[in-house]
Each structure stands twice: as structure tokens, then as C-alpha cells.
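Page 42, continued from yesterday. The earlier attempt failed because a stray header line got pasted into the input along with the sequence. Redoing it now with the clean sequence only.
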Amino acid sequence: MRKVINKVDKPLLVLTLISLIFGVMMVGSASSLKAYMKFSDNYYYFKRQILFIIIGLTAAFILIKTPLKRWKSLIYLAALGVLGALLYVLFSGKVSNGITGWLFIGGFGIQPSEFAKTVLIIYFAFVFERLIKIKNLSNVSKVLPFVLPVIYMALIFKQPDFGTMMILAGITAVIFLIVPYDKKTKFIMILFTIISILVLALAMVISGKGFSDAQKSRFNYKDPCTRYRQETGYQVCNGYIAINSGGILGSGYGNSKQKYLYLPEAHTDFIFAIIIEEMGLITGIIIILIYFIIIWRILMIGKKSYNLQGTIICYGVATYISLHVLVNLGGVLGLIPLTGVPLPFYSYGGSFMINLLICLGLVQRVCVENRIFEQTHMIR
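This time it went through. C-alpha cells are written below.
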């Protein structure tokens, strides 16, 4: 076991652990008042976040020490399981924050759309590793792997969860670009995608169906403080106030004022605003730099991968983390519509945290297999 651990990417491991520790501390601070008012326990969300991290790290540990090939037979079952769960929540799921995408089991909420991202990355990795070795592959066979993400996106859009749908689309697009198909095939697929989007948009305009009223209101995101008393401006404007109050060094850990119910989602969507209010702008900049380093390390592992499978996993995970960071911070800063996408390592949430750590465990396993491959070839 020690031999396997010695082969992981140490900078990525250290930065992951630092981010997790600081993140759970900030969840504890940002959620303390809400936890007390709702559950009479200041540490309710803090303790649950620790539990989610333990579950995620355990899963990541298992993945790091298990060869990737052993999961091939399970990925199709997992893909069908997620598909079934997405269908179930669409018709019978519990509503949370306006989204019918939740299963509640024993007091814990499970969001199948989060598992869809992880399953999709692994699915693409195994499927394309096999397909790319087949000579004279038909165009239909080349397109078939992209049917699953389209179905996932359609079901998630109906929840409606536009943010998660766009992240799935981004992951699919990046993986499509790195799969070594010929230019003609890629051109046909891109053209087909554009036509499909245009037809869908036209159908939505003609029918008057598509975006819900809540989704449409989110496109009214500019100058939020001019709509302070309206839902479209209240949260983002209070986020601005939190960021402005923090200054360079912050007001000190636990001293946020905006978490006193001014920001209803202080420990989830707006955790970054609370971090800057308490810990200062410098800490916010350091967090962003750490994200850059983590994503860079993942991309380097993918670049060094000796097979397409490892490359797809790493590039998929890097895209997954990047889009979450961009969409969350873009919404909090009022640069794009607010979609309720969690911030990696920092936002409270079980499904997202567990899947994030599973993805990082997969990346570390790719790193381990890369180094085993290098050592084997050096000996030969």
C-alpha cells in the first residue's frame, strides 16, 4: 500500500487536504447561526460536512489503490443507475431551492445530477479507450457515446437545474475535443449539435415553454443592488456587501455579519463572499491561485498519461472543477446569472463533496498507473 501512496501526486494531495481543512472550517463559521436556529446546534452543518469528507476520502482511498480496469464492468451499471435516479426525481423527487432533483434517505439528501458528472467522465474514459482501438469504426458508433450525456442533460434541465446541465455540456464538449476522431467526423458532429440547439431554441420560442419563470429571472443579474428588495438582486448585493466589508485582511474568523440571515445561502452558494468578509481579499486571491495549481497539476497528469483513458479522466475532472469555480464565482460576483452551483472544497453539500473527492481519487489513480508504467518500461 505504501508503494501506491508514494506514487500519487504529492502537490495535488497536499493542496487538496489544505483546501478541505480550510473549507470545513469556513462552513462551520458560515453556517453556525442557521444551524442553531434550525437545529439548536451551532455545529450541525460543520459535523455533517466532516462526515461527507470522510466518506469522500474513503472512496478516494479505495480508488487510488484499485486498478482502473476493475471498474470497467461496473460503469454501465452505474450509468443506468444514475439514469434511473434522474427519472425518479423528475417525477417523485423532493423539491429543494426550486429544484426537483433530490432523494432524501435517512435525513440525508442525495442529488443524482452530481453523480451524473462523475459517472459521465468515467463512462467516456472507458468507452472511448475501447472504441478508438476499433478499425473502420462507423460514424454511428462514433456518435453513440454522446447519446447518454444528452439524455442526462435533458432530464436535469427539466428539474430545472440549468447550472448543472451547462457543466455536463462543458465536460462533454471538452472530452469530445480531445477524442482523436478525424476532422470530418468532428465537423459533422459539431454541425449536428448546432442545428439541434437552434431547433430546440426555436421550438421553445414558438411553444412558449422551456425556461421557468425562476430561471428567466436569473438572467436579470446586472446591477443587483438596484434591486435590493427583489429576489433578483438581494442575495448578490449582500454578497457584494460581504466582500466589501472584508477588505484586505478581513474582519476575523467567525465575525461575518452577512451570515446573520442576510445571505440565505451563506454556507453553500455564497461561501466565497463569507470567506473574504472574514479572512480578507488576500485569502480569496490565495484560494483562486490554489485552484489554478490544482487544475494545472491535474492537466499535467492527464498529459503524461500513457493511454486515452487516463487523459479523458484528468481532462474531464479538470473541466469539472474549473466550470464549478467559474460558474460559482461568476454568479457571486454578478458577472453571470446565479445558478446555485457549489464552490469546490468550500460549499456545504454531501453529493458534491463526495463526487469531488471521488474524481480526485481517480486522477491520483491515473498518476499511480502512469508511474507504474514508466517504471516498468525503464526496467525493460
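Notes: The longest strand covers residues 99-105.
Reminder to self: strip header lines before submitting.
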